[in-house]
Write a structure and sequence with these properties.
single chain; about 200 residues; mainly alpha; Arc Repressor Mutant, subunit A; two-stranded antiparallel ribbon; 10 helices; MarR family winged helix-turn-helix transcriptional regulator; MarR/SlyA-like; HTH_MarR-typ
Amino acid sequence: MPFKSGTELAAMLREAGIDPATAEAVLDIDGLMQKWRRRAMRRELGHRALVDLKVGIDLAQFDVLAAIEGPSLDAGESQGETMIATVAERLNIDPSRASRLVSEMVEQGFAQRAVSQADARRTVIVLTERARAVVGAVQAYKFLIMGDFLSEWDPAELAAFVPLLKRFGSWMDGIDPAMEKHAAEIAALAESIAQQGTQSEPA
């Protein structure tokens, strides 16, 4: 039977051996993550930054500039030279679309084509000084707003929060043992879906 309430979900977690306090935390965290995900998908802060900074480009165009600039420090990717294929890979889009977007940025003076220092036959994409200023300003804007928010936290709260957030951020990295541990519960959930499908079939 489908779950209709948090109470039923909490009961399932308790039956699986998860204590009530942890079960309640799971439900609370999931609700917060859904809200966070919706706001992140709308990218409210990034849009606000571009408007307040009077940049004159939209978020999709800013993403192209960020992709040309290079990976973040913790992305595990070397800097290297940026080509159309690099932009396509970083944005997870088709190379032809990446080419059109880069061309738009070149036409607007945010990027320029250059000859590779490693291979003169290869064309690379680099940001203009104006574009670097935009990328840096948007990043600084975000840090200012976040910094202002966190400045109201007690130092002890920050000291506890950051390590815990890092720890929580890796919760999906090793889920196989948990899947094996709860194989019976997962099989029961799959069976409940199959039963609903059978019940909905016309006689």
